[in-house]
Structure of Cytochrome B:
Amino acid sequence: MTPVQLREQEGLRPSTTGSDTVKVWDPMVRLFHWTVVTACILNLFVLDEGKYWHRLTGYVVAAAIAMRIIWGFVGTRHARFRDFFPTPGKVRKQILGMINGREQRYIGHNPLASIMMLSLMTLLAMTAATGWMTTLDAFWGDKWLEEVHGALANSIMVLAFIHAGAALVESWRHRENLVWSMVTGRKRA
């Protein structure tokens, strides 16, 4: 095998900028990410609450979460939960590294990004569940459930803005476009 073929087999490819990239985010992870981004924008800012398209978009998110949970156990390396589960030691090490200026670079999710991703997935699942519950006869007209659903949705919005801001800051700090990597699936090696 030629050196180029060996590098391609390892997931590396030559770049026109002189640096190498590696496959990180598979199509399933990227589909999940952009489906959730689109659905949240639609349901938070465009669609009428409780109406048909709002509910349908919520069901799409619920299906995407179910798919992502399964993929977290059987998917590619960086998609698997075991690859990025944030233990207290990993989180502490990352925070101390950031403070000391010796932060470890992660190809997949870093520990703080892992906390964010798992938090967002949990909030999305709870929002989908409470949205679905508002359609049941048992909870018909219960304002408390609608308020919980709204609070969860607002929490998603806050965390999503923090997540997007952190992606931009980390892109600048590490001199790589993390948003673009979620489009292409590749990051700097």
Notes: Strands lie at 12-14, 20-23, 186-188. Residues 143-174 form the longest helix (32 residues). The chain is about 70% helix and 5% strand.
